[in-house]
């Protein structure tokens, strides 16, 4: 395995349900946006809330130890904010009303089902929303492979213009989901 393949495999991979849309784009668009780093939209509401949640998590744990009643109240307020944000986002972006599909995802790329074959080395603009946080990510990716399956194709893409902030959000999501999956499998039925 060469260095590039090792780096591509350097992230944990999980199967997850995400709302996803993609479209083919010319390489010139990818090069232009990569040069100016314009692919990352101004952080979505969910992304900003998730970043804030990560920063406040340490403080929340301290409050939880010293004043559990206050912590429960703050958690309730946090849930209200999340609910309001979800309703705002669902009304503002068609991605959030799409049905989800199972993808295999990591900090370096994803594999998903497509109806029409994609060619290796094609570029796609990919938008997806992670559940349940509704964190949304928009990036460009290069098609690594596209294999036929029953009535569809399985495309594997590698991110080429993922911002560090979005990669951090994605990696945290993958690790959190992986921990939850492990916890669920350990719990007796």
Structural write-up:
- With 189 residues, the chain is an alpha+beta fold.
- The protein folds into 2 domains: 3-41 and 94-186, Beta Barrel (Thrombin, subunit H), CATH 2.40.10.220; 45-92.
- 46% of the residues lie in helices and 29% in strands.
- The protein has 5 helices and 6 strands; from the N terminus they run αβαααβββββα.
- It has helices spanning 3-8, 27-36, 45-66, 68-92, 164-186, and strands spanning 14-25, 100-105, 109-114, 123-130, 136-149, 152-159.
- The protein has a 6-stranded antiparallel barrel.
- A hairpin with a 3-residue loop joins strand 2 and strand 3 (109-114).
- Helix 3 runs antiparallel to helix 4.
- The radius of gyration is 18 Å and the shape is globular.
- The termini are far apart.
- Residues 1-8 have low confidence and may be disordered.
Compute the number of strand runs: 6
**What is the total domain count?**
2
Q: What is the global morphology?
A: globular
Task: Indicate the mean pLDDT.
Answer: 80
pLDDT below 50 for ≥5 consecutive residues: which ranges?
Answer: 1-8
Largest sheet: number of strands, sense, barrel closure: 6 strands, antiparallel, barrel
Proportion of residues in helical segments? 40-55%
Secondary-structure-derived class: alpha+beta
Q: Distance between termini?
A: 40 Å
Q: Can you count the helices?
A: 5
CATH topology of the largest domain: Thrombin, subunit H
Q: What name goes with the CATH superfamily of the largest domain?
A: predicted glycosyltransferase like domains
For this structure, what is the CATH class of the largest domain? Mainly Beta
| H-E order | HEHHHEEEEEH
Radius of gyration: 18 Å
